[in-house]
């Protein structure tokens, strides 16, 4: 088993090291200091008298700070070290490390302390795809700093390393010759700062005077963030810990892109996705709305600023389209990747309208709805004008950038995620089912905003008529009658891509499902093929491509389950929603409160614990938001006019639960509930699905 990695982060700047605090990255290894999609430090190795150090423990102080307790290796099982070493590291626009050596002997000790440093300045895409650099490296010592640099034409990145104690600097690192008195200690501060662009302007680090002494601003920010969130009181320590972990991780993932004016939105996830993603930021903002509505406002403004304005095949851009991903690295700068930004997703655009409406329902902030009227209208127009590639009234996707564009432009975006029952892959373009649900929801919500805020009843009437027509056609064209569920997609010839998948739960959330079809869907979602006991699988067991540890073909995604539970709740299936919530929250306890991007889809009785997916991002924004949406779902929180309706249906294992100071258009309000739903935590027979209260 590989050694666990230690990671600290602040927005899109993060450091990943081994358990000793050392970094020895290869071109394909996501360890190092990263900022704005570039690795600014790929080697950072500490030795004392030529010896590497062994970890005794690692303290996870905050998401932005950690501390390593180390001793020199002795070559014996029993370590009776006369020296110990503490590395206290904090990240924030670079990183700071406070290095302390303690002498536990009665005699003084003379030491040679060495920090080897180096950098490959790899673009994050180069790390993912094992690509080689095309520019020129340089290293020099200047004004008491070691400068590591890289340039390619006008693209320039530089790392500057300095220390507070006297050191000999060379092109490979820093050397300290020190004497530590009996029972004494020696300390130095190590600063690593980064520079972007041809001008070589260094980013001022948030930590400049020592990790212990410079914490207050970031600690106060975190304390303020936690204090402003609703307070959870409950009988289960595990749920309380999971909720706090989610709030802290969401704080860690806050990212302020240049267009956000200093405000924050959620970056998608560590290590590969520490940037702005349209879909991820929208879903996370929806999950977190009852807890921190300001994230949604920033997400809406930032995505609106980057909304597509032209037809650009390289970036898969259209007028009105919401971006998929924004990157700042070398490959994007030289148009070797299209992410400046890249627009290749088919769901973020209708979801943008969904978020805008849900934000107004919670906050009453009509000023923002008026401010973003043009962007919302353009998004609604994109659905019919640009997304209907075959003229059938559905959203279809097919990449125009065949070389570096995304093939699957739905949330299940891996190459084999969309398949027939027998495992065959359909051709392109594809119309996945949940996209049609999002389009229906966007039209219904857009109609509400048009009538209520934009004062355009004609647009509202048209959108409602289009939504009703879409719902009627969808329930006819996508329904797999012999299985009583909706097809995963339509292929270019209009054939049903008939695999059974979790996407059906998103259809319930969107409201596109006819009442008569809701109960069979709930039965499938809680049935033995989709429900593992921990959660709903992305693809049902028994399908041709089912694999319990396949990325989108059998794993359980916590975020997916949170929206499925919300959808079940909206159609009146309280017990089923509570059962999904119980399974996911049970899984969170095994992951120390931090739900990963995905975990294995094995049956719960088979494994007894959720099986980790090998390359899952953690923390990941929409997994971090999952416990929040599940709390909303279990408590039955729904805004109605100026009031918040509370209709709890909690698993009995949770006991009494209180969510206090929920922000919204009503000011602050409390919600209470007691667990009364008995859940099995194992796949159930479809016959036992409750009748529901259909909408």
Describe what you observe in this structure.
Helix 12 packs across helix 14. The model is unreliable at about 205-215 (pLDDT under 50). The protein is an alpha+beta fold. The strands form eight sheets. Strands 7, 8, 9, 10, 12, 13, 14, 17 and 18 form a nine-stranded antiparallel beta sheet that branches. It has 18 helices and 31 strands.
Sheet having the most strands: 9 strands, antiparallel
Please report the number of helical segments. 18
Low-confidence parts: 207-214
Q: Report the principal-axis shape.
A: globular
Q: What are the key terms here?
A:
five-stranded antiparallel β-sheet; 18 helices; 695 residues; 24% strand; alpha+beta; 29% helix
Sequence-ordered SSE layout with sheet pairings:
Elements: E1 6-10, E2 13-17, E3 23-24, E4 32-35, E5 38-41, E6 43-48, E7 53-62, E8 65-72, E9 83-91, E10 95-103, E11 109-118, H1 124-129, E12 136-142, E13 145-152, E14 155-163, E15 168-170, E16 173-180, E17 185-196, E18 201-202, H2 216-228, E19 231-234, H3 237-252, E20 254-255, E21 265-266, H4 278-288, H5 294-305, H6 330-333, H7 348-363, H8 366-371, H9 373-385, E22 431-432, H10 433-452, H11 457-477, E23 479-480, E24 485-486, E25 489-490, E26 496-497, H12 503-510, H13 515-525, H14 558-570, H15 574-590, H16 604-607, H17 621-624, H18 626-635, E27 638-640, E28 643-645, E29 650-651, E30 656-664, E31 667-677
Helix pairs in contact: 4-5, 4-7, 4-18, 5-7, 7-9, 7-10, 9-10, 10-11, 10-12, 12-14, 14-15, 14-18, 15-18
């Amino acid at each position: 088993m590989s050694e666990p990695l230690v990671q600290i982060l602040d927005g899109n700047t993060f450091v990943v090291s081994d358990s000793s605090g050392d970094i020895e990255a290869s071109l394909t290894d996501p360890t190092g200091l990263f900022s704005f999609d570039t690795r600014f430090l790929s080697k950072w190795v500490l030795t004392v008298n030529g010896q590497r150090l062994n970890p005794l423990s690692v303290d996870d102080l905050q998401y932005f700070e950690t501390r390593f307790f180390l001793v020199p290796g002795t070559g014996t099982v029993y370590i009776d070290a006369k020296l110990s070493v503490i590395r206290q590291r904090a990240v924030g626009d670079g990183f700071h490390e406070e290095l302390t050596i303690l002498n536990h002997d009665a005699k003084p000790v003379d030491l040679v302390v060495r920090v080897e440093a180096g950098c490959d300045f790899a673009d994050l895409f180069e790390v993912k795809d094992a690509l080689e650099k095309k520019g020129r490296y340089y290293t020099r010592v200047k004004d008491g700093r070691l400068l590591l640099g890289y340039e390619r034409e006008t693209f320039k990145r530089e790392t500057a390393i300095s220390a507070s104690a006297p050191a000999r600097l060379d092109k490979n690192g820093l050397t300290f010759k020190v004497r530590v008195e009996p029972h004494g200690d020696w300390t130095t501060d190590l600063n690593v700062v980064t520079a972007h662009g041809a001008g070589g302007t260094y980013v001022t680090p948030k930590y400049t005077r020592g990790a212990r002494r410079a914490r207050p601003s970031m600690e106060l920010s975190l304390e303020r963030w936690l204090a402003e969130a609703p307070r959870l009181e409950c009988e289960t320590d595990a749920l309380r810990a999971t909720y706090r972990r989610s709030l802290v991780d969401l704080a860690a993932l806050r990212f302020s892109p240049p267009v956000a004016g200093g405000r924050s939105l959620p970056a998608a996830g560590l290590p590969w996705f520490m940037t702005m993603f349209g879909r991820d930021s929208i879903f996370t903002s929806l999950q977190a709305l009852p807890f921190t509505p300001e994230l949604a406002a920033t997400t809406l403004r930032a995505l609106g600023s980057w909304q597509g304005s032209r037809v650009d095949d390289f970036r898969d851009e259209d007028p009105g389209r919401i971006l998929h991903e924004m990157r700042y690295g070398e490959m994007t700068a030289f148009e070797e990747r299209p992410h400046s930004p890249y627009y290749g997703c088919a769901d973020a655009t209708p979801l943008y309208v969904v978020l805008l409406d849900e934000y107004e329902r919670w906050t009453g902030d009509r000023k923002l709805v008026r401010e973003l009227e043009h962007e919302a209208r353009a998004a609604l127009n994109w659905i019919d004008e640009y997304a209907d590639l075959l003229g059938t009234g559905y959203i279809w996707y097919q990449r125009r950038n065949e070389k570096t564009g995304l093939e699957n432009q739905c949330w299940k975006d891996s190459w084999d995620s969309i398949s027939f029952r027998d495992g065959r892959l359909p051709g392109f373009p594809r119309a996945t089912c949940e996209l049609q649900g999002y389009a229906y929801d966007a039209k219904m919500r857009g109609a509400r905003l048009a009538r209520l805020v934009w004062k355009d009843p004609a647009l509202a009437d048209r959108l409602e008529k289009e939504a009703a027509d879409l719902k009627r056609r969808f329930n006819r064209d996508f329904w797999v009658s012999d299985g009583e569920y909706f097809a995963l997609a339509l292929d270019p010839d209009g054939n049903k891509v008939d695999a059974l998948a979790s996407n059906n739960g998103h259809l319930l959330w969107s409201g596109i499902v006819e009442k008569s079809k809701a109960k069979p869907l709930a039965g499938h979602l809680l049935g033995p093929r989709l429900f593992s006991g921990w959660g709903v699988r992305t693809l049902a067991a028994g399908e041709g491509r089912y694999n319990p540890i396949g990325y989108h073909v059998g794993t359980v995604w916590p975020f997916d389950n949170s929206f499925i539970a919300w959808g079940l709740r909206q159609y009146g299936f309280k017990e089923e929603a509570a059962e999904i919530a119980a399974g996911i929250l049970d899984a969170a306890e095994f992951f120390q409160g931090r739900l990963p991007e995905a975990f294995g889809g094995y049956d719960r009785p088979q494994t007894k614990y959720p099986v980790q997916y090998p390359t899952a991002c953690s923390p990941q924004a929409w997994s971090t938001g999952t416990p929040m949406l599940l709390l909303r779902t279990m408590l039955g929180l729904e805004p109605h006019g100026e009031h918040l309706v509370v209709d709890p249906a909690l698993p009995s294992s949770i006991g009494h639960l209180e969510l206090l100071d929920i922000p919204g258009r009503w000011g602050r309000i409390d919600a209470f509930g007691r667990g009364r739903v008995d859940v099995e935590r194992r796949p159930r027979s479809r016959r036992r699905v409750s009748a529901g209260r259909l909408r």
